[in-house]
Specification:
This protein has a single domain, classed as MetI-like fold (Orthogonal Bundle), CATH 1.10.3720. The protein is 68% helix and 0% strand. Helix 3 packs across helix 10, helix 5 runs antiparallel to helix 6 and helix 11 runs antiparallel to helix 12. The longest helix is centred in the middle third of the chain and has 37 residues. The chain starts with 18 loop residues before the first helix and ends with a helix.
């Protein structure tokens, strides 16, 4: 029998990997995804690229930031954008570009932590409330509806004022306003799914309540939860920036886009536009990235599209 693809040479059935082959496979994958999902695929990809870039800035800010974000005397006070300071300097001679780069770590950390914490609380409560029903469902629904009735930003301001400044405190203040969102979503899905035949079959063979909730019901609502999670991060970014803008956010020593906006507004009438322009663009870009990811996922994970 003739050997193929051995170490001594000879062409075998498996072609060697090359950059050209990899790019070709990636291109074909993108073409198939575009045909299947349409423009929503590219919306999701664009949002993901923005998020990955911001995550890189948050994890490795020292690779691109020119100065320490809190270092003063890095240049002339309130100097306009130029070669040494691409985003200019602020009223304390700090480099605005470095503060924008390091501020990505702050706002991403708070937004991701708040969305994760609210989901870890809201999802189990929604599963239990929808599946068990009865008095527990009525009490939890009443509490969550009461919280949901308040405007999110006003509720976050109330909690932030009560807890005080700090990374942990502002994370808790932002997380509270999103717990009812996960609760209402998961509860509604659970009320529908618990009547399905496969859940009845699992119950009839003696499956435990936890097994039914987390192995039969929850896997069928993960797609919806992922979409809401992405959109909630986008909203948490603007909420955190708003709290910092009004002075209820983080301490002064931590670079934060919302705080820089608040400081920069004082100098805007004097023509110092760069102190608010670049932090503002960073907030809009990051929030838009998560919004695009969520909207794209909502279409890509749509079961009606998957049936095509």
């Amino acid at each position: 029998m003739r050997e193929t693809g051995g170490a001594g040479g000879g062409s075998g059935p498996r072609a060697r990997f090359s950059p050209a082959n990899g790019l070709g496979s990636l291109f074909r994958l993108l073409i198939r995804a575009t045909r299947r999902y349409g423009a929503e695929w590219w919306i999701m990809v664009a949002g993901l690229l923005v998020i990955l870039f911001m995550i890189y800035l948050a994890l490795f800010p020292q690779t691109i930031a020119l100065y320490n974000p809190n270092a003063q005397n890095t240049g002339a006070q309130l100097s306009a954008p130029g070669p040494g300071h691409p985003f200019g300097t602020d009223n304390l001679d700090r480099d605005v570009f470095s503060r924008v780069v390091w501020g990505s770590r702050t706002i991403l950390g708070v937004a991701l932590s708040a969305a994760l914490l609210s989901s870890l609380i809201g999802i189990p409560l929604g599963l239990l409330s929808g599946y068990i029903g009865g008095l527990l469902d009525r009490v939890l629904s009443l509490v969550m509806d009461s919280v949901y009735a308040f405007p999110g930003l006003i509720l976050a301001i109330a909690f932030a004022a009560m807890l005080g400044p700090g990374v942990v405190n502002i994370t808790l203040a932002v997380a509270v306003i999103y717990i009812p969102t996960y609760f209402r979503l998961v509860r509604g899905q659970t009320l529908q799914l618990k009547e399905q035949l496969y859940v009845e079959a699992a119950r009839s063979i003696g499956a435990r309540r936890g097994t039914i909730l987390f192995q039969y019901i929850f896997p069928n609502i993960i797609a919806t939860v992922v979409v809401i999670f992405s959109l909630n991060i986008a909203d948490a970014i603007t909420t955190e920036a708003a709290l910092s803008y009004i002075g209820l956010g983080l301490p002064a020593g931590i670079p934060d886009w919302g705080m820089d906006l608040s400081i920069g507004k004082t100098f805007l009438p004097s023509g110092v536009w760069w102190m608010i322009t670049f932090p503002g663009l960073a907030i809009v870009t990051l929030a838009l990235g998560f919004t695009m990811l969520g909207e794209g996922l909502a279409e890509v994970l749509n079961p009606r599209l998957l049936e095509r």
